[in-house]
Amino acid sequence: MAVASRLDTGLAFTNVLLPTLAKGVIVRRSGVTALAEKVQADALAVATVKRFRARYGPEPLRLRVTGRSIALVLDASDAARLLADSPEPFRLDTVEKRAALDHFQPHGVLISSGEERAARRRFNERVLHPDKIDAEGIVRDEVDLLLRHARSTGALTWDAFARAWWRAARRIVLGSGARDDHEVTDLLRQLRGNANWAYLHPKRKRLRERFEARLREHVERGEAGSIAGLGDPDEVVGQAPHWLFAFDAAGIVTMRALAIGGEGHAGIWESARLWPTTPVILRESTEPTDWHGTWLPAGTTFIVFAPYFHRDRDRLPYADEYAPRIWPLPAEPGIVPFSGGPGACPGRDLVLVAGGTALEVLRPHLEVPVLRAPLPATLNHFGLSFVTRK
Known about the structure:
14 helices; CATH 1.10.630.10; alpha+beta; single chain; 8% strand
């Protein structure tokens, strides 16, 4: 197994990892995202990983980082193995992930392990089903109101869409009584902003307590028709911060799907393939593991850079185009817009229904698509705007 030169290790950080972090892993930074689109940062990142594979071969590439064992995954079959063999021997709750998510969801399933993780995962899988709540009806309600606003102004902007999407998200997760409670999601946004800095930002205990108290007020209503009404309040309070966090990413995916003229579930899947909202997937080994004859120690952090597997033109003839035909089962094992294996997003079907419904309602009334192939490697959703049809 190859070890990257110091220069290439530096390039892995400066061209691939740091731009991803700068855009905001937990909450997107609008200014940096706009700059990343201008320079097409993800195109450079994908090209860098492709050069690594050409230079070092398909096996995981060890980076030269003092005191750490870190490997960049370069082959789709290795990425599939990591995801399939989670959480043992490849745990999801990596050091970096715990440092970030602990700011706002210390009891979240993504930073849990052992039986605690298994129980929380089962709970998530049980309640995050579109047949348990009327997500489609809620989204239709809010998007219909959004359309009225868009017609009055002549355009649909990200800001207007995001306000409507958050109203729908609060209703789906917490109930209609939380529809206009902007404060609960504003508090969460502040905590997520801190989480962008992971262990470099001190925990804001009082802010999190304020958020959790506000959250619990809604959860303890146990409103019928919401996810909060499907479980024990303590379980819901522990997991709801992640559900709300995930709805933010779902909104971004939906807005980008509009830009390519996406339709239905395939439109959502394709948007998430073209511009993954989780571009860096991390796993950490719990024991020594054999990789093509080389043993890597326990505690090795594995990095799967999803845009490389989703947008490599040498392997995927449809890499830079809208290709709904590949879904729901793409032949390429490295295409994982909702992750994969036992760690796959348990709310995927809920996201597909909510996002697909928004596309169905909005698309006939907007001038779409606004983007055509070859599609950009980096897309700033904050800057998207759609003219309404007369």
